[in-house]
From TrEMBL:
Protein name as annotated: Iron-sulfur cluster assembly accessory protein
SUPFAM superfamilies: HesB-like domain (SSF89360)
Residues covered by the Core domain: 6-103
Matching InterPro entries: ATAP, ATAP_core_dom, FeS_cluster_insertion_CS, HesB-like_dom_sf
């Protein structure tokens, strides 16, 4: 199973946020039921990786995903996108069969 990865833009943004909050540069990606398409992504800074987490790294920034969520986001890429509508983390998920306009929920 392929662990999700971070783009350079996402790694740089996470590093900046972590530095501002005096936390380790570790982003936790998890999936919860809900959202307009069935599942939704959750992001948050983590203090450390858990024993069952899958971990990938880009430029010293870690992305951690729990074993349950990994089944739903394997092979994904987390990007940070800035546009006229605002700035946000986006998940490019090859397993998502459906998504919503906000980009924060998906269906399989």
């Amino acid at each position: 199973m392929t662990t999700p990865s971070l783009t350079d833009a996402a790694a740089a943004r996470i590093a900046a946020i972590a530095k501002k909050q005096a936390k380790p540069a570790i982003l936790r990606l998890s999936v919860e039921g809900g959202g307009c398409s069935g599942f939704q992504y959750r992001f948050g800074l983590a203090d450390a990786a858990e024993d069952d987490d899958s971990v990938s790294e880009n430029a010293g920034v870690k992305l951690v995903v729990d074993s349950v969520s990994l089944d739903l986001v394997a092979g994904s890429t987390v990007d940070f996108v800035e546009s006229l509508g605002g700035a946000a983390f986006r998940v490019e998920n090859p397993q998502a069969a459906a998504g919503c306009g906000c980009g924060s929920s998906f269906g399989i």
